[in-house]
Design brief:
Layout: H1 3-20, H2 22-45, H3 66-75, H4 101-118, H5 122-139
Keywords: Membrane, Transmembrane, Transmembrane helix
Protein name: ABCA1 protein
Length: about 140
């Protein structure tokens, strides 16, 4: 059977079915129109407002490394909107969190752990602990 013959028969069958089911036809036509008018009324009752261009701080993906990913979550928890481009929007920059508290905490811990791994003498470990106590007393 040719394509146009099949299409004509299908349209004739559909028309015949729709003519016999008038209530169903009215519902199928009225329901999308009803939803469309609801959308129009919502749009008219809440007109759009002008807002400045919005730049969000960059957030590293987990593939960039665990530390940049955690810093992106912690440092941008409130997700602020800025008028001007942020430093992290430049191509090739993974994160702009080098001066954050989390970054300093991890770098200090890394330096302390590397220092204690290189020197195994008990005397040097006691020096480090004594300096940590002094630091804790001076800041507290």
């Amino acid at each position: 059977m040719a394509f146009w013959t099949q299409l004509g028969l299908l349209l004739w069958k559909n028309f015949t079915y729709r003519r016999r089911q008038t209530f169903q036809l009215l519902i199928e036509v009225a329901w999308p129109l009803f939803i469309f008018f609801i959308l129009i009324s919502v749009r008219l009752s809440y007109p759009p407002y002008e807002q400045h261009e919005c730049h969000f701080p960059n957030k590293a993906m987990p593939s960039a490394g665990t530390l940049p990913w955690i810093q992106g979550i912690i440092c941008n928890a409130n997700n602020p909107c800025f008028r001007y481009p942020t430093p992290g929007e430049s191509p090739g920059i993974v994160g702009n969190f080098n001066a954050s508290i989390v970054s300093r905490l991890f770098s200090d811990a890394k330096r302390l752990l590397l220092y204690s791994q290189q020197d195994t003498s008990m005397k040097d470990v006691q020096k480090v602990l004594g300096k940590l106590r002094k630091l804790g007393n001076s800041s507290g």
